[in-house]
Amino acid sequence: FERSGNHQSRTMASSIVVCNQKGDILINRKFRDDISRNEIMNFCNKVVATKAAKETPIIQLAGVSFIHTTHNDITLFACTKGNINAALTLHFLHGFVKVAKSYFEGELNESAVRQNFSLIYELLDEVMDYGYPQ
To answer: What's the short name of a Pfam family annotated to this entry (predicted)?
Structure first.
């Protein structure tokens, strides 16, 4: 059994992203620079915009794991190249939806995200610490 000296950096989310049904990125909070915008757009175009894999919350494309959930007309997802705790990440995403809904009078959709994008970035900074859920 070999231990990596940098275990924690492999287990955190690199980005939390919110996109609409067409695959347009509305929010992209990066915690690390190991995943490019092109890799994120690849997921948005191949999975979100085509409605593929709605029942599959974890998808891997080109070495990047995308853990996602859909709420109303938006998709929230975490992406990483490491071995992330998928259950914890899904729990975090669902919890973030609840928190955001409480701020936006019970409704979280594309319109609410567009109108409150700066607040969403602030919320993400409060509930995530360098990609680790708090």
So the answer is: Clat_adaptor_s
Global pTM? 0.86
Q: Which one-letter amino acid corresponds to residue 94?
A: H
Q: Find out whether 131 and 12 touch, Cβ atoms under 8 Å.
A: yes
Task: Give helix 117-127 / helix 86-103 axis angle, nearest 10°.
Answer: 140
pLDDT tens per residue across span 34-72? 999 999 999 999 888 787 767 789 999 999 999 999 999
CB 126 within 8 A of CB 6: no
Per DSSP, the three-state class of 81 is: coil
Host domain of residue 28: 7-129
73-110 pLDDT per residue, tens: 999 999 999 888 899 999 999 999 999 999 988 889 99
CA distance 15 to 30: 4
Contact 26, 53 (CB under 8 A): no
* Residue 134 covered by a domain: no
If one counts the domains in the chain, the total is 1
Provide the 10 A C-beta neighbour count for residue 101: 16
